[in-house]
Amino acid sequence: MTTSSVPLRILSLDGGGIRGISSLLILEAIMEKIRDVQGLDHMPRPCEYFDFIGGTSTGG
Question: What local confidence, expressed as pLDDT, does residue 16 receive?
């Protein structure tokens, strides 16, 4: 068995309605910050930075 020293990155988006919208807006701000810090010319996709993504309602 091999263990990795790199921790898993998990994105959990919970809830619908205004909570779901606010979660998506926060995620958008995080992805914009990653774009700016890394000097990317495109908006990165969450699946490029998180190992597992899941949620309920809007987050699902």
Answer: 79
Does the global pTM surpass 0.70?
yes
The 10 Å CB-count burial string (b at 16+, else e) for 37-49 is eeeeeeeeeeeee
**Alpha carbon distance 2, 5 (integer Å):** 10
Cβ 46 vs Cβ 12: under 8 Å? no
DSSP letter (8 states) at residue 23: H
Amino acid at 1: M
Rg (alpha carbons) of the chain, rounded to whole number: 14
Burial 1-16 (b: 16+ CB within 10 A, else e): eeeeeeeeeebebeee
Q: Tell me how far apart the terminal alpha carbons of the chain are, to the nearest angstrom.
A: 32
